[in-house]
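Long-time lurker. I teach an intro course on protein structure, and each term I like to show students one example going from raw sequence to a predicted 3D structure in token notation. This year I'd like something fresh instead of my usual example. Would anyone be willing to generate the tokens for the chain below so I can use it in lecture? Attribution to the forum is fine with me.
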Amino acid sequence: MRTGISTACLYPMELEKALPTLISMNFHLFEVFINTFSELKPEYIQGLKQLVDDSQGTVKSVHPFTSGFESFLLFSDYDRRSLDGLEFYKQYFNAANLLGAEILVLHGQRDDKRSRVMEQSYFEHYADLFALGKTFGITVAQENVNLFRSDDPAFITRMRAYLKSECAFVLDIKQAVRAGKDPYQMCEAMGEQIVHVHINDNNSASDCLLPGYGTMNFNRLKRQLDGFGYRGDFIIEVYRRSFNRLQELEKAKQAVNAII
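-- Reply from a regular --
Happy to contribute to a lecture. Here you go:
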């Protein structure tokens, strides 16, 4: 297990600036949040890879900027658009390959009561993307996200039961809290299929703080993950408004190291 950080922590700082900033703070494991179309160009991705390589770092995961459109692009009842969406996501898989990443983080479909996409169909759409990712050596991992179908532990439990070993999950603490769900219950729902953790903290006043700045019982979470045989990493992911000074990221790293 290692401590890493998402470039999303510094958004809206451009990636080519965010990575060197985090590297200068002695971070060496990253989730790269791609923010726009031009950042998918191979020459741009190769420039990011060079920054990471020069620091002897590693990119663990990639986060698409089209997460908010996955309902439309990937989980549509219009089959041709879903197929085109799969074709478009090959660009993310190629970017992940160039960066040396292993995981693509998926938000999935918004929790829209008007949607005609039934639950089984959702699972099958996900399975198509999961299978496509595997052909690139990339694991597509469903994240629990507030206001999306995935924000409900019961939905995640049914997804895991339906897909069995052909699925993977990202546990995000803040997203569970924001959805009014128990993060430990969400962890239980994901079980042994958790491959990635977005670690952050919270308290009664805020659902998103840097690790070590809130009241989250990380030792309890670590024991729970150990029970599932989790051998992945812990990626610090908060919003830029969640902290005041960059130096606070270094303190958060120390807090996560202590958990590990």
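Some talking points for your students: The chain has a mean pLDDT of 96. The chain has ten helices and eight strands.
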